[in-house]
User: Which sequence fits this backbone?
């Protein structure tokens, strides 16, 4: 990647949509690029690498503030990576909690579906459980 790229080319090459690139500029994740004589943005290879970094971090579920900190760390490569490790560790804890919650949700939905007699709505276990949150086994007050 050499030379400059229009915003459309930057979007295509980085996998980040044009409005999102503008948003990242607006919130300071991506520095405002120089402009051509015609007023068009002119992105460089470093901008495309930064966009790819941001896109990948977002795909992994990192929040904007964490990405901002990670970018600052990336911009100063001689410092300790302890802060980056801490951010990743905190995110891992969040992901593990989310997985546990989704696992409980899957189990509850499976229990609801298994309890379905395929009869009438009046005796539908799915409707019963949805109508009474206390029936949910993943809910603290629910029955096992």
Assistant:
């Amino acid at each position: 990647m050499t030379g400059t790229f229009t915003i459309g080319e930057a979007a295509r090459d980085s996998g980040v949509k044009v409005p999102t690139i503008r948003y990242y500029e607006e919130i300071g994740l991506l520095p405002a690029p120089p402009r051509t004589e015609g007023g068009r943005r002119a992105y460089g290879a470093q901008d495309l690498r930064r966009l790819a970094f941001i896109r990948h971090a977002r795909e992994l579920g990192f929040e904007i503030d964490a990405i901002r900190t990670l970018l600052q760390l990336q911009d100063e490569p001689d410092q300790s990576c302890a802060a980056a490790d801490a951010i990743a560790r905190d995110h891992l804890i969040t992901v593990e909690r989310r997985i546990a919650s989704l696992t409980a949700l899957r189990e509850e939905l499976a229990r609801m579906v298994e309890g379905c007699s395929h009869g009438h709505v009046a005796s539908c276990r799915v409707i019963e459980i949805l109508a009474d949150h206390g029936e949910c086994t993943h809910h603290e007050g629910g029955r096992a």
Notes: Residues 82-135 form one domain. The two ends are 58 Å apart (CA to CA). The chain has a mean pLDDT of 86.
